[in-house]
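yo

u said u wanted the structure for the complex thing, so here. seqs first:
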Amino acid sequence: MHNHSTCSDGLLSPTQLIELAARTGADGIALTDHDTTAGLEAAAAAARTLGIEWVPGVEISVTWGDTTLHIVGLAIDPTAKAMVEGLQSIRDGRLGRGKRVATVLKGMGIPGALEGALALAPSESMLSRTHFARFLVASGAVKDTQHAFDKYLAKGKPAYVAHEWATLPNAIAWIRASGGVAVLAHPGRYDLKPWGRGELLDEFRRLGGEAIEVVTGSHRPEQYATWRRAAEEYGLLASRGADYHGPGESPFEPGRLPPLPGGLTPVWSKWAH
Ligand code: AMP
Ligand code: MN
Ligand code: MN
Ligand code: MN
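structre next:
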């Protein structure tokens, strides 16, 4: 219920992603590109051809205080006006941020990052830190994309540039207006203050959020139990998704993720029968 394609920062086309999901044994698949629904039509067609259950989705970038959160919308209608206009409004800021990232890298002795990252991105408005990470690998500055984040691009590192994404109320409202279910993506990845976790889960639920990811390629397996308890404690549905970006960049292929721990209600119980 969480995967990327070349329409955002994944390495496989929507069709190739669905083919991989079918090949690795997934019964169902969602495409959830960052801030865009451009790949959903092609992915839906591939899912129909391969007989795999299809869930249209999106992963919305959100600014919550000084933390960037990702909210996945599942079973959305990508033509809903609020969704179309909302996503457009946050995509527009990506090129400006990218220019600032490139300026910092240039100052650190790495020229050509804007052109290099843009050459790897689907468009100026989808320019992502992942494209900068791949440029840094290709230019020999680091050995893999994880090191590019650890050394340059992650929050607190020199080429991190803060950005204002959607608000949490707006992201959840766009998802609900498009008939979808709001899922807090990879909660174990946020660097929250000690009180921040309860505050976030309370606010997320109050705004109409319904699920959290428990088993995700962006959690280490030892984190699953923590977020299983959070799902139970806050009465949230549980989701499971590879957060697949491409060969060599993600720990699990879509169909090869461990199952949800027992006792949780899966988010897909909302639409699968
Ligand atoms: P952006 O939306 O352009 O800021 O890029 C965010 C993307 O960068 C995420 O969706 C991940 O694919 C990747 N990413 C962010 N932080 C990390 C990290 N610490 N390690 C590896 N990948 C990361
Ligand atoms: Mn990504
Ligand atoms: Mn994410
Ligand atoms: Mn993701």
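DSSP finds ten helices and six strands in the chain. The pocket of manganese (II) ion (ligand 3) is lined by residues 59, 70, 185-186 (CB under 6 Å).
cya
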